[in-house]
Design goal:
heterodimer, A: about 140 residues, alpha+beta, five-stranded antiparallel sheet, 3 helices, B: about 150 residues, Thiol Ester Dehydrase, Chain A, 5 strands, about 20% helix, elongated
Chain lengths: ~140, ~150
Protein backbone atom coordinates (compact mmCIF):
# COMPACT_ATOMS: atom_id res chain seq x y z
CA UNK A 1 0.00 0.00 0.00
CA UNK A 2 1.11 3.54 -0.66
CA UNK A 3 3.18 5.04 2.10
CA UNK A 4 0.88 7.92 2.96
CA UNK A 5 0.59 9.84 6.21
CA UNK A 6 -2.28 11.86 7.64
CA UNK A 7 -1.60 15.55 7.07
CA UNK A 8 0.53 14.92 3.99
CA UNK A 9 -0.10 17.28 1.05
CA UNK A 10 -0.16 14.91 -1.91
CA UNK A 11 -0.83 17.42 -4.70
CA UNK A 12 -1.28 21.13 -5.30
CA UNK A 13 -1.80 23.20 -8.40
CA UNK A 14 -3.17 26.46 -9.77
CA UNK A 15 -5.90 26.47 -12.42
CA UNK A 16 -7.23 29.45 -14.36
CA UNK A 17 -10.82 30.05 -15.35
CA UNK A 18 -11.56 32.51 -18.16
CA UNK A 19 -14.81 33.49 -19.86
CA UNK A 20 -13.79 31.18 -22.73
CA UNK A 21 -13.59 28.27 -20.27
CA UNK A 22 -17.13 29.08 -19.11
CA UNK A 23 -18.48 29.03 -22.66
CA UNK A 24 -16.76 25.72 -23.36
CA UNK A 25 -17.98 24.21 -20.09
CA UNK A 26 -21.53 25.42 -20.75
CA UNK A 27 -21.53 23.66 -24.12
CA UNK A 28 -19.86 20.49 -22.86
CA UNK A 29 -22.02 20.13 -19.74
CA UNK A 30 -25.31 21.44 -21.12
CA UNK A 31 -25.55 23.93 -18.24
CA UNK A 32 -26.67 27.10 -20.03
CA UNK A 33 -27.76 29.03 -16.95
CA UNK A 34 -27.20 32.64 -18.14
CA UNK A 35 -25.54 33.69 -14.85
CA UNK A 36 -22.48 31.83 -16.22
CA UNK A 37 -22.21 33.85 -19.43
CA UNK A 38 -24.44 36.94 -19.32
CA UNK A 39 -23.45 39.92 -17.11
CA UNK A 40 -26.84 41.56 -17.54
CA UNK A 41 -28.72 38.54 -16.22
CA UNK A 42 -26.15 37.93 -13.45
CA UNK A 43 -26.53 41.51 -12.15
CA UNK A 44 -30.32 41.42 -12.50
CA UNK A 45 -30.44 38.53 -10.02
CA UNK A 46 -28.16 40.37 -7.60
CA UNK A 47 -24.80 38.80 -8.41
CA UNK A 48 -21.55 40.80 -8.73
CA UNK A 49 -21.04 39.51 -12.29
CA UNK A 50 -20.72 36.34 -14.33
CA UNK A 51 -19.83 33.37 -12.12
CA UNK A 52 -18.02 30.14 -12.88
CA UNK A 53 -20.22 27.05 -12.83
CA UNK A 54 -19.76 25.50 -9.39
CA UNK A 55 -19.44 22.19 -11.21
CA UNK A 56 -16.50 23.54 -13.27
CA UNK A 57 -14.64 24.45 -10.06
CA UNK A 58 -15.53 21.00 -8.70
CA UNK A 59 -14.23 19.43 -11.94
CA UNK A 60 -10.89 21.29 -11.66
CA UNK A 61 -10.41 20.14 -8.06
CA UNK A 62 -11.36 16.68 -9.34
CA UNK A 63 -8.56 16.92 -11.90
CA UNK A 64 -6.04 17.33 -9.09
CA UNK A 65 -7.55 14.25 -7.49
CA UNK A 66 -7.51 12.02 -10.58
CA UNK A 67 -4.05 13.28 -11.62
CA UNK A 68 -2.76 12.26 -8.19
CA UNK A 69 -4.60 8.91 -8.09
CA UNK A 70 -3.70 8.28 -11.73
CA UNK A 71 -7.14 7.14 -12.80
CA UNK A 72 -10.72 8.45 -12.64
CA UNK A 73 -11.88 4.99 -11.56
CA UNK A 74 -9.95 5.46 -8.31
CA UNK A 75 -12.49 7.99 -7.02
CA UNK A 76 -15.11 6.33 -4.81
CA UNK A 77 -16.71 9.42 -3.25
CA UNK A 78 -16.37 13.11 -4.01
CA UNK A 79 -18.31 15.98 -2.49
CA UNK A 80 -18.08 19.75 -2.18
CA UNK A 81 -19.96 22.71 -0.79
CA UNK A 82 -20.02 25.79 -3.02
CA UNK A 83 -19.37 28.37 -0.31
CA UNK A 84 -18.31 31.44 -2.28
CA UNK A 85 -19.07 32.43 -5.87
CA UNK A 86 -16.11 32.52 -8.28
CA UNK A 87 -16.46 35.75 -10.26
CA UNK A 88 -14.83 35.49 -13.68
CA UNK A 89 -13.75 38.88 -15.07
CA UNK A 90 -14.25 39.72 -18.73
CA UNK A 91 -10.54 39.81 -19.59
CA UNK A 92 -7.83 37.51 -20.98
CA UNK A 93 -6.48 36.41 -17.59
CA UNK A 94 -9.60 35.19 -15.84
CA UNK A 95 -9.38 34.09 -12.23
CA UNK A 96 -6.76 31.86 -10.55
CA UNK A 97 -7.99 28.94 -8.45
CA UNK A 98 -5.52 27.29 -6.04
CA UNK A 99 -6.19 23.64 -5.22
CA UNK A 100 -4.34 21.38 -2.80
CA UNK A 101 -5.08 17.89 -1.53
CA UNK A 102 -4.24 16.72 2.00
CA UNK A 103 -4.59 13.19 3.37
CA UNK A 104 -7.01 13.05 6.32
CA UNK A 105 -7.30 9.29 6.82
CA UNK A 106 -5.58 6.13 5.59
CA UNK A 107 -8.16 3.37 5.96
CA UNK A 108 -7.70 -0.32 6.58
CA UNK A 109 -9.54 -1.14 3.34
CA UNK A 110 -6.86 0.66 1.35
CA UNK A 111 -8.91 3.76 0.59
CA UNK A 112 -7.57 7.19 1.44
CA UNK A 113 -9.68 10.16 2.55
CA UNK A 114 -8.48 13.46 1.13
CA UNK A 115 -9.43 17.03 1.95
CA UNK A 116 -9.27 19.51 -0.92
CA UNK A 117 -8.51 23.17 -0.23
CA UNK A 118 -9.89 25.24 -3.12
CA UNK A 119 -9.16 28.97 -2.92
CA UNK A 120 -9.38 32.21 -4.88
CA UNK A 121 -7.36 35.13 -3.44
CA UNK A 122 -6.68 33.06 -0.31
CA UNK A 123 -10.38 32.61 0.38
CA UNK A 124 -12.04 29.22 0.18
CA UNK A 125 -14.53 28.97 -2.67
CA UNK A 126 -15.33 25.34 -1.92
CA UNK A 127 -15.61 24.08 1.64
CA UNK A 128 -16.06 20.52 2.89
CA UNK A 129 -14.41 19.42 -0.37
CA UNK A 130 -13.64 15.79 0.34
CA UNK A 131 -12.92 12.62 -1.52
CA UNK A 132 -12.40 8.97 -0.87
CA UNK A 133 -10.07 7.32 -3.37
CA UNK A 134 -7.77 4.42 -4.04
CA UNK A 135 -4.25 5.87 -3.77
CA UNK A 136 -1.75 5.57 -6.63
CA UNK A 137 0.31 2.41 -6.80
CA UNK A 138 3.82 2.92 -5.42
CA UNK A 139 5.55 1.75 -8.59
CA UNK A 140 7.85 4.71 -8.89
CA UNK A 141 5.27 7.16 -10.27
CA UNK A 142 5.74 10.84 -9.50
CA UNK B 1 -43.85 32.09 -3.19
CA UNK B 2 -42.60 29.03 -1.36
CA UNK B 3 -42.52 25.73 -3.18
CA UNK B 4 -45.35 23.35 -2.37
CA UNK B 5 -44.03 21.07 0.39
CA UNK B 6 -46.30 18.25 -0.76
CA UNK B 7 -43.78 17.71 -3.57
CA UNK B 8 -41.36 16.10 -1.06
CA UNK B 9 -40.90 12.43 -1.83
CA UNK B 10 -41.77 12.86 -5.48
CA UNK B 11 -39.85 10.40 -7.72
CA UNK B 12 -39.46 11.43 -11.35
CA UNK B 13 -39.47 9.02 -14.30
CA UNK B 14 -36.01 7.58 -15.09
CA UNK B 15 -34.18 9.64 -17.72
CA UNK B 16 -32.06 7.76 -20.27
CA UNK B 17 -28.57 8.90 -21.15
CA UNK B 18 -26.01 7.27 -23.45
CA UNK B 19 -22.34 8.08 -22.77
CA UNK B 20 -20.78 8.96 -26.12
CA UNK B 21 -17.13 9.11 -27.12
CA UNK B 22 -17.28 12.65 -28.48
CA UNK B 23 -19.16 14.04 -25.46
CA UNK B 24 -16.55 12.59 -23.11
CA UNK B 25 -13.78 14.12 -25.23
CA UNK B 26 -15.57 17.49 -25.32
CA UNK B 27 -16.09 17.45 -21.55
CA UNK B 28 -12.47 16.50 -20.79
CA UNK B 29 -11.28 19.30 -23.10
CA UNK B 30 -13.65 21.80 -21.46
CA UNK B 31 -12.16 21.09 -18.03
CA UNK B 32 -8.64 21.09 -19.54
CA UNK B 33 -7.96 17.49 -18.56
CA UNK B 34 -5.43 15.80 -20.86
CA UNK B 35 -5.52 12.35 -19.22
CA UNK B 36 -5.42 9.95 -22.23
CA UNK B 37 -7.98 7.57 -20.65
CA UNK B 38 -10.66 10.13 -21.66
CA UNK B 39 -9.83 9.97 -25.38
CA UNK B 40 -7.61 6.99 -26.19
CA UNK B 41 -9.03 3.43 -26.11
CA UNK B 42 -5.59 1.86 -25.76
CA UNK B 43 -4.69 4.06 -22.79
CA UNK B 44 -8.06 3.25 -21.20
CA UNK B 45 -7.51 -0.49 -21.69
CA UNK B 46 -4.02 -0.22 -20.22
CA UNK B 47 -5.69 1.26 -17.12
CA UNK B 48 -7.96 -1.85 -17.12
CA UNK B 49 -11.11 -0.16 -18.46
CA UNK B 50 -13.20 -1.70 -21.26
CA UNK B 51 -13.20 1.53 -23.23
CA UNK B 52 -12.65 5.26 -22.78
CA UNK B 53 -13.95 6.46 -19.38
CA UNK B 54 -15.38 9.81 -18.32
CA UNK B 55 -14.03 12.25 -15.68
CA UNK B 56 -15.82 11.82 -12.32
CA UNK B 57 -17.98 14.95 -12.58
CA UNK B 58 -19.16 14.06 -16.12
CA UNK B 59 -22.05 12.25 -14.41
CA UNK B 60 -23.50 15.72 -13.72
CA UNK B 61 -24.77 15.71 -17.33
CA UNK B 62 -27.30 12.90 -16.77
CA UNK B 63 -27.93 14.25 -13.25
CA UNK B 64 -28.84 17.67 -14.71
CA UNK B 65 -31.47 16.00 -16.89
CA UNK B 66 -33.05 14.80 -13.70
CA UNK B 67 -32.88 18.36 -12.33
CA UNK B 68 -34.52 19.63 -15.53
CA UNK B 69 -37.71 17.59 -15.12
CA UNK B 70 -37.90 18.45 -11.42
CA UNK B 71 -37.47 22.20 -12.16
CA UNK B 72 -40.12 22.04 -14.85
CA UNK B 73 -42.49 20.20 -12.53
CA UNK B 74 -42.03 22.80 -9.76
CA UNK B 75 -42.00 25.80 -12.13
CA UNK B 76 -38.48 26.98 -11.24
CA UNK B 77 -36.28 28.92 -13.71
CA UNK B 78 -32.52 28.23 -13.48
CA UNK B 79 -31.66 31.92 -13.03
CA UNK B 80 -33.15 31.61 -9.51
CA UNK B 81 -31.10 28.52 -8.66
CA UNK B 82 -27.90 28.50 -6.60
CA UNK B 83 -26.01 25.21 -6.32
CA UNK B 84 -25.19 24.83 -2.60
CA UNK B 85 -23.50 21.44 -2.45
CA UNK B 86 -22.93 18.30 -4.49
CA UNK B 87 -22.05 14.74 -3.47
CA UNK B 88 -21.17 11.73 -5.64
CA UNK B 89 -20.68 8.11 -4.67
CA UNK B 90 -19.37 5.84 -7.46
CA UNK B 91 -19.51 2.08 -7.94
CA UNK B 92 -17.49 2.49 -11.12
CA UNK B 93 -16.52 5.19 -13.64
CA UNK B 94 -18.80 5.96 -16.59
CA UNK B 95 -17.62 4.18 -19.75
CA UNK B 96 -18.29 5.14 -23.38
CA UNK B 97 -21.31 3.17 -24.60
CA UNK B 98 -22.97 3.08 -21.18
CA UNK B 99 -26.75 3.37 -21.48
CA UNK B 100 -27.65 4.95 -18.17
CA UNK B 101 -30.93 5.64 -16.43
CA UNK B 102 -31.14 8.40 -13.83
CA UNK B 103 -33.94 8.36 -11.29
CA UNK B 104 -34.46 11.66 -9.47
CA UNK B 105 -36.09 12.01 -6.07
CA UNK B 106 -36.98 15.20 -4.22
CA UNK B 107 -35.85 14.20 -0.72
CA UNK B 108 -36.53 17.41 1.22
CA UNK B 109 -37.57 21.07 1.10
CA UNK B 110 -36.56 23.57 3.79
CA UNK B 111 -37.26 27.30 3.97
CA UNK B 112 -34.29 29.44 5.00
CA UNK B 113 -34.45 33.26 5.02
CA UNK B 114 -37.13 33.40 2.35
CA UNK B 115 -35.39 30.91 0.07
CA UNK B 116 -36.28 27.29 -0.57
CA UNK B 117 -33.56 24.69 -0.08
CA UNK B 118 -34.16 21.51 -2.07
CA UNK B 119 -32.38 18.22 -1.36
CA UNK B 120 -32.33 16.17 -4.54
CA UNK B 121 -31.06 12.62 -5.01
CA UNK B 122 -30.18 11.04 -8.36
CA UNK B 123 -29.61 7.31 -8.66
CA UNK B 124 -27.73 6.36 -11.82
CA UNK B 125 -27.89 2.75 -13.03
CA UNK B 126 -26.60 1.03 -16.16
CA UNK B 127 -28.51 -1.09 -18.68
CA UNK B 128 -28.00 -4.18 -16.49
CA UNK B 129 -29.66 -2.25 -13.59
CA UNK B 130 -26.31 -2.21 -11.75
CA UNK B 131 -25.55 0.84 -9.62
CA UNK B 132 -23.09 3.29 -11.20
CA UNK B 133 -23.40 6.46 -9.14
CA UNK B 134 -25.57 8.15 -6.55
CA UNK B 135 -25.60 11.93 -6.52
CA UNK B 136 -27.07 14.22 -3.90
CA UNK B 137 -27.39 17.98 -4.23
CA UNK B 138 -28.72 20.93 -2.30
CA UNK B 139 -30.16 23.68 -4.49
CA UNK B 140 -31.17 27.08 -3.13
CA UNK B 141 -34.11 28.64 -4.95
CA UNK B 142 -34.38 32.43 -4.69
CA UNK B 143 -37.89 33.84 -4.50
CA UNK B 144 -39.53 35.19 -7.66
CA UNK B 145 -38.89 38.95 -7.84
CA UNK B 146 -37.18 41.67 -9.83
CA UNK B 147 -34.05 41.80 -7.73
CA UNK B 148 -32.18 44.96 -8.72
CA UNK B 149 -31.05 45.60 -5.17
Amino acid sequence: MADLAVGQVVADREYRITRENLVRYAGASGDFNPIHWNDRVARAVGLPGVLAHGMLTMALAGRLLTDWAGDPGAVVEYSVRFSRPVVVPDDDHGVAVQVSATVTEVRDDGLVAVDLAVKVDDQKVLTQARALARPPKTDGGS
Amino acid sequence: MAIDSSAVGRVYPPQPYEVSREKVREFAEAIGDTNPVYVDVEAAKEASHDDVVAPPTFVMIPVMRGFDILMEDLGIEYARVVHVDQYFNYSRPLVVGDRLETTTTLDAIRQVAGNDLLTIRNDVHDAARAHVCTAQATLLIRPEENGDG
